[in-house]
Sequence to fold (247 residues):
Amino acid sequence: MIANYHGHTMHCKHGVGTTREHIEAAINFGLEEVAITEHVPIKGTNLSRIDYEDFDAFITELNQLKLEYADRIKVLTGLECEYIPEIIQSHLDLKAKYNIDFLVLGHHFSNLNQVGHYFFETKNKEMIDDYFEHVKAAVKSELFAFIAHPDVFLNRLQLTDYTAQKSRELFELCSEYKLPVEINGNGLRNNKGYPNRDFWTIAKEYDLQFIINADSHAPNEIYDEGVKATYKFADELGITVTERLEF
Fold:
């Protein structure tokens, strides 16, 4: 692994370790690039993500660390976002104001009234349709650098004919828009229902760019057994992984 483009620190409230500790860990693991991609703040919510009030200090420090470590590792700034049309402009405003390198599509919920990881608990057709409707719209928006854990809706489900067809439609769209798809290391690290083997077996039939990210929430997770298992998972399926992206 030479780059991790999906990682969280203590600032997201469900991770540990300072920003500096994560960068130092990436250097010690031999990475050439590392991104800090905190969940974008959303006003008026109590979700587990960085608060607006803390964002300025966080991103100011991160931009300083980018310069401090420039001769040792390339540090990138990202924001992991849901695609909720009514608030997407606020994400773009933050990206422009703070010179953020890229946005990640990590679609957890579609409704501002939904608390927590909604699509981690997908359980019916309505939720499946909601997920794919918003994710496909996000791909078409061309605002995102890649899709994080696109198979998150399968965390508690098995792939069916219906979800397989929905997945094929998404793969076709990602191929058309040349949007990379992430095989997520946090799933195997924490024994979640993703990465889903049937989902990725279908995905490899398409002309897609595949990346592996740690989705780290602690410095030691940037290149741990979960990440190594994810590389093995991709290799067993015959998936060729892209190691570096251009932003």
Remarks:
- Strands lie at 3-4, 33-39, 74-81, 102-105, 146-147, 181-184, 210-213.
- The chain has a mean pLDDT of 95.
- The radius of gyration is 17 Å.
- The longest strand covers residues 74-81.
